[in-house]
Amino acid sequence: MTLVSKQVPGLGRITTHVTYYADTVVQFRGIPYGSVAERFRQAKMIEAWEEGELDASHFGFRLGAFGFMASPDIQEDNARNGDAGVGNYGIWDQVLALQWIQKNIRSFGGDPARVTVMGESSGAIDVLFLTLLRSVSVDELLDAYQCTGSPMPNWQATVDGNLLHDLPAASQLPHYTYPSTIRRIMVGDCEKEGLIWAKKFINPPLATSPLSCLSGHFPAEVGLQLALDYHLDAKPATPVEGMASLSAFCGDAEFSLPLYEIINSWRNGDAFYFRMRFVNPFSGSFAGTAHHGVDLLFAFQTYNKLLPQALAAAAEEMGKHLIRFCHGLSPWPRYNEETTVMCYGPDTVKALAKKDDKVGRYEIWDRLRGIQDAWTRASRELRNERIYS
């Protein structure tokens, strides 16, 4: 048997039979989504699903400078050529793709009144942006469902006064009125999202201590309590210990808290909430952790043949949950009726009442209501990222 071993960004080193690996995994924004043929068109998952067929559409869009570069000079050049706004070209590509789906999906057996948009990481940010469009009616794109993930933008979109009039802030999320055509949502995150900044935190280039940073953004008592909650009140015993504390603090600020605000303020219809706690079984710097992007191992079924048996079974269950959601059914009890959280891991797939989920830091997030943006600013200062106003 011929084996191939390859380092896959975001997952680690995967060793497998060459005929399985070849042409199976492609790179999409640096994350292995899996090819269109293998990612969502799983015969054993979809054809055998008793609720009916599922039409899956995958579209590309411009990235990086080609998709999101913006400047006054570019805006002037656009205006001279009759184009309003600036930047957001990747989002315009997504708008065009959704318009195409509305116009043509019936020809493929689909229903334009039941479109589910799914995004992970920056793709989830884009899904949120699509609910905030100004020069394009969301009603023309989605008479539908929304499935999303971590929503807060650190980069990418531009407030151009044309396509977008503002960008989401954590404090604003509870007050948004979403288009009525978006009738249900599914949101979720990974337990250790903040590990994407792990290298920064091993030797953090901080001018002040984390505790001093928090005192500059929060009232004294609030800052001290947050430092205690996240073990930032004293110098860590080791760099790894410090990294773990800072990763938890920043991951909650940028990923978990915004999602928590969305799920708690959703009023349009059904809302489903999950937490990914199964860990990456492959060797690499993030092995054994539920890091950012590890949910892709499970959602798209691409790696089932390579996962340990228990994790492969969990992946199949997650896939069925997603398909059930796409068909307008309830994959588990709704959060907005029973505050139920679907916990994928760390040992089993289990729906828990929020009060019984002892891993989530919900009480901390509830305390921060009203001053969420200060948490975001503190997180970015700790990461030594420039804050633009």
UniProtKB/TrEMBL annotation:
<dbReference type="InterPro" id="IPR002018">
    <property type="entry name" value="CarbesteraseB"/>
</dbReference>
<dbReference type="Pfam" id="PF00135">
    <property type="entry name" value="COesterase"/>
</dbReference>
<dbReference type="InterPro" id="IPR019826">
    <property type="entry name" value="Carboxylesterase_B_AS"/>
</dbReference>
<feature type="domain" description="Carboxylesterase type B">
    <location>
        <begin position="59"/>
        <end position="132"/>
    </location>
</feature>
<keyword id="KW-0378">Hydrolase</keyword>
<dbReference type="GO" id="GO:0016787">
    <property type="term" value="F:hydrolase activity"/>
</dbReference>
<dbReference type="InterPro" id="IPR029058">
    <property type="entry name" value="AB_hydrolase_fold"/>
</dbReference>
<dbReference type="InterPro" id="IPR050309">
    <property type="entry name" value="Type-B_Carboxylest/Lipase"/>
</dbReference>
<comment type="similarity">
    <text>Belongs to the type-B carboxylesterase/lipase family.</text>
</comment>
<protein>
    <recommendedName>
        <fullName>Carboxylic ester hydrolase</fullName>
        <ecNumber>3.1.1.-</ecNumber>
    </recommendedName>
</protein>
